[in-house]
Every structure is written in structure tokens, then in C-alpha cells.
């Protein structure tokens, strides 16, 4: 009910102004004949009603011209006081409404300035030209109280509306930010899935293409070898289907549990990845330096995909039969180096800025908090170097183990301790 009334008031402001003006004009009739107890009316009633009517009509412009409305209603109130009428709320009601509108539509300084000036002028007029029979205390306190009240209410209403608007603006901003963040997360997820699809498809299709070409060449001269490679080709395509199914399955809802999740892809499958390139004629050697330490799930997948993409590029571009993958574990980082020695008859390896594969590898490394560098080796061939951060827990455990070892080496051995 209250909200409906407020909505109606906001939708029909001109009608509200007319009702207020008519009501205050009607109140001017009893206000113009009001006297103190035991005293007769010293002035006719109609001049007060006429001046109050002009003041009430001025309220029709209180929303568009609030300062002008206050000046007009103040002049009318001073005229009523000069004519000898008692200043009650029934007579100076238009001035009170004008001050309320000014305080609600303007700043506090303007409202207070007009109010103080109005009180000074009105009190001065009453003291000088007002009726002598009216008590001095009533002449002083009446205008002060009646003019301070609407200014205070208007200022309070304006501050409350500003507070509600600020809260609404913050809520709108939070909603827009939440939607923007959600769209950003969706875009990032799509980019990640696109990179996974690119890596899976490129890797398996390159191997399948090479194996199919080998089968065609050996079909007549070496049918047994062609049959073996054809069987490996079937395995490669089946592996591609499984990885594609796992990658596309990420697009399903989280509560879709029809297909159980498989093992997480990472460096644990690096040996299988290296073996998968043998049918394509690429011998991959994996060397590990330092003590292997765990990576986060994202960094582990990133390392696997970078090695996979780098070896795929070697198969497509390098024209060599061997490649080396070197894993170097330090106290806080994992270094991955994929190198090949190039070939003399094959096309040159891609430059560091060519192709989406290099861009995808660099984006993967950056997303995991690492960095990637690609380029030609001075002695020939191509090299992909990546550094990825290790888990903080693994770093702490490694430091604790180092401290324990140092304490064990430095601890003195006494006969009592041995005993």
C-alpha cells in the first residue's frame, strides 16, 4: 500500500503540487481570522487570504524554481506579518513547503543560507510591524521554529535519498562486475579448452598422418611392417578419441556423473607420450635432473601439454629422428627443455612467433605462473625452454629436509650419546 502510494506520488508530481497549493490556500481562511484569547481581530480577513493565495500559487514552481519560490513565499509571509496577522503554520505554510523543497533539491549550504535570511527578515518584520498585542516571545520563537523544521526535514530527506541512491549504485556496480567476471571466467575456460583441443588434435593427427603414409609406402615391399604400423595407427586414433572425449566432457555440467573421470593428465604419462612418437619415426629421450617434486594440477597439465606440443612440432617441422626432453628440478621451479638437432632435407623449424602452437605454449606457461622461451639453437635445431613453479608445500618440505640433513652433519657425537 505504501509503495503504491509512493509510486503514484512520483508519477503525478503536478497533481500533488495542485493539491498542496489548494490545501494551504484553504488553511489561510482560518489562519487569517485567528487571534489571541480574549482579543478581537484588528484587521480584515481578506487581505491575509489574498496574500496567502499568491504564496500558495507560487508553490506550483517549487520543483523547477525552488529559490525563486522561497523568495516569493517569504515576501508574502513578511506582508502578512506587516498587515498585523499572527504568524501561525496556517499562514506561513507555503513558506515552510518552499523551504522544504529547497532543502531537498539543493545543497545544505544553500538551504541553511535561505533559512537564516528568512528567519532574520521575518522576525525583524514581526518585531517592527507586527501587532503590539502579541507577546514578544511568540514573535521571536514562532518564526524560528516554523522555518527551521521544514529545512531540517528537507535536508534529512535529501541525505536519505542520496544514501539509498549510493547503495543502489553500489549494488548495480557489483552486479555488473559480477557479470563481467563471470563472462571473463567463461572466456578463460573456453580458451583453455580450445588449447587442449588444439594440442590433442594436432598431436594425434600428425602421428596418424605419418603412420598412414608409412603404411602406404611399406604395403607392397614390407607387408608385415605395414600391418604392424596399421595396428599402431588404430591405437593412435583410439587414444585420440579418448582424449577428445575427456576434453569435451569438461563442457558438461558438474553434476553429470555418467562418465567417471579418468586419471589426471600430467608428467606421470610422459613415458607413454614419448613412446607414442616412435611409430612416427621420432625417438624421444627423457632425462631428469634433481629430485622430482610435485606440481599443482594446473602446472602438471601445462608441463605435459607443452612437451606434447613441442614434440609434435618436431615431428612436423624438424625432419630429425631424435629429440630430447630434459626435466630439471630446483628448490622452487621445474625447468623443461625440449630440443632437436634438426634435419638437412626437411623444412626449417618454425620461428618463435609462427603458428598457434607456440602462442598456446606461451599462454599455458604464463597461466601457470611460469615463462617460456623458444628459438633456434646455435649448433642447429630448435629448442623450447619452460620454467614452471613448484608447489609451496614441496618447497617447504625440501627446505625442512635440507635443514635436517645439515643438523645431522653438524651434530657432535659424544660417547654418552652413542651409549
Could you characterize the architecture of this molecule?
- This protein is α+β, with helices and mostly antiparallel strands and 419 residues long.
- The chain has two domains: 2-174, no CATH class; 267-410, Heat Shock Protein 90 (2-Layer Sandwich).
- The chain is built from 13 helices and five strands.
- It has helices spanning 2-11, 13-32, 46-58, 66-83, 93-105, 108-129, 136-218, 223-248, 270-276, 297-318, 355-367, 392-410, 415-418; strands at 283-289, 322-329, 333-340, 371-376, 382-389.
- A five-stranded mixed beta sheet has the order 1-2-3-5-4, with helices on one face.
- Strand 4 and strand 5 (382-389) form a beta hairpin.
- The longest helix is centred in the middle third of the chain and has 83 residues, at 136-218.
- The protein is rod-shaped.
- Mean pLDDT is 78; it is low at 253-260, 344-353, 393-399 and 407-419.
Could you provide a short overview of the structure?
With 419 residues, the chain is of the alpha+beta class. The chain is 64% helix and 9% strand. The chain has helices spanning 2-11, 13-32, 46-58, 66-83, 93-105, 108-129, 136-218, 223-248, 270-276, 297-318, 355-367, 392-410, 415-418, and strands spanning 283-289, 322-329, 333-340, 371-376, 382-389.
Amino acid at each position: 500500500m505504501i509503495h503504491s502510494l509512493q509510486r503514484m506520488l512520483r508519477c503525478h508530481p503536478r497533481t500533488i503540487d495542485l493539491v498542496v497549493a489548494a490545501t494551504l490556500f484553504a488553511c489561510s481562511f482560518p489562519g487569517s481570522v485567528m487571534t489571541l484569547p480574549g482579543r478581537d481581530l484588528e484587521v480584515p480577513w481578506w487581505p491575509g487570504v489574498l496574500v496567502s493565495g499568491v504564496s500558495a500559487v507560487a508553490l506550483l514552481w517549487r520543483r523547477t524554481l525552488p529559490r525563486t519560490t522561497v523568495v516569493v513565499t517569504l515576501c508574502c509571509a513578511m506582508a502578512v506579518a506587516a498587515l498585523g496577522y499572527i504568524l501561525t503554520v496556517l499562514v506561513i505554510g507555503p513558506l515552510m513547503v518552499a523551504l522544504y523543497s529547497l532543502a531537498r533539491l539543493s545543497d545544505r549550504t544553500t538551504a541553511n543560507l535561505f533559512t537564516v535570511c528568512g528567519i532574520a527578515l521575518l522576525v525583524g518584520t514581526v518585531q517592527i510591524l507586527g501587532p503590539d498585542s502579541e507577546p514578544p516571545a511568540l514573535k521571536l520563537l514562532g518564526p524560528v521554529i516554523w522555518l527551521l523544521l521544514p529545512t531540517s526535514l528537507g535536508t534529512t530527506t535529501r541525505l536519505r535519498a542520496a544514501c539509498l541512491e549510493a547503495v543502489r549504485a553500489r549494488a548495480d556496480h557489483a552486479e555488473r562486475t559480477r557479470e563481467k567476471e563471470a563472462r571473463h571466467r567463461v572466456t578463460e575456460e573456453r580458451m583453455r579448452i580450445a588449447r587442449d583441443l588444439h594440442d590433442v588434435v594436432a598431436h594425434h593427427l600428425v602421428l596418424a598422418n605419418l603412420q598412414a603414409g608409412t603404411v602406404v609406402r611399406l604395403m607392397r615391399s614390407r607387408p608385415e611392417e605395414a600391418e604392424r604400423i596399421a595396428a599402431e595407427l588404430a591405437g593412435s586414433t583410439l587414444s585420440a578419441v579418448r582424449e577428445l572425449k575427456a576434453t569435451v566432457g569438461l563442457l558438461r555440467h558438474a553434476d553429470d556423473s555418467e562418465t567417471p573421470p579418468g586419471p589426471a593428465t600430467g608428467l606421470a604419462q610422459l613415458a607413454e607420450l614419448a613412446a607414442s612418437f616412435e611409430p612416427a619415426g621420432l625417438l624421444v629421450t627423457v632425462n631428469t635432473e634433481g629430485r622430482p617434486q610435485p606440481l599443482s594440477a594446473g602446472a602438471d597439465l601445462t608441463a605435459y601439454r607443452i612437451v606434447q606440443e613441442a614434440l609434435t612440432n618436431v615431428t612436423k617441422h624438424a625432419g630429425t629422428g631424435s629429440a630430447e626432453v630434459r626435466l630439471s628440478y630446483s628448490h622452487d621451479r621445474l625447468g623443461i627443455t625440449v630440443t632437436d638437432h634438426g634435419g638437412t632435407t626437411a623444412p626449417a623449424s618454425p620461428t618463435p612467433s609462427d603458428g598457434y602452437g607456440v602462442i598456446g605454449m606461451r599462454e599455458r606457461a604464463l597461466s601457470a605462473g611460469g615463462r617460456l622461451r623458444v628459438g633456434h639453437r646455435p649448433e642447429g635445431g630448435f629448442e623450447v625452454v619452460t620454467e614452471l613453479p613448484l608447489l609451496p608445500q614441496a618447497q617447504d618440505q625440501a627446505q625442512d629436509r635440507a635443514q635436517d640433513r645439515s643438523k645431522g652433519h653438524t651434530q657432535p657425537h659424544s660417547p654418552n650419546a652413542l651409549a
